[in-house]
Design brief:
Length: 101
């Protein structure tokens, strides 16, 4: 995931934010940030977690968790339909232009 996705889901990066190396510490515990409004994120299997700090949110989003699986599915279906329609129009044009029956 990129920083734009993190900002879309978690909000803007706090000033002076320093990313910690969480992966190297198996006993790392995220601390609750009282100034951060909790965000629900979901994985591909539909599991959800509420994150209570920007650092925790960034960690989950960078790990592949999303804002809302229903929204992502809806967007992917709409994009797929648009690509299908464009491909159909292009194929019909090519057939009319180059195939003489």
């Amino acid at each position: 995931m990129d920083n734009k996705t993190v900002e879309k889901i978690c909000g803007q990066y706090p000033k002076g934010f320093i990313k910690e190396d969480i992966a190297s510490n198996p006993n790392f515990v995220f601390s609750n940030d009282p100034g951060y409004s909790g965000v629900n994120v979901y994985d591909e299997a539909g599991n959800s977690v509420t994150v209570n700090s920007f650092q925790e949110c960034e960690h989950y989003v960078m790990g592949g968790w999303y804002e809302n699986p229903v929204t992502n599915l809806e967007q992917n279906l709409q994009i797929g339909i648009v690509y299908f329609l464009i491909a159909t129009i292009v194929i019909k044009f090519v057939i009319k232009k180059f195939v003489k029956i």
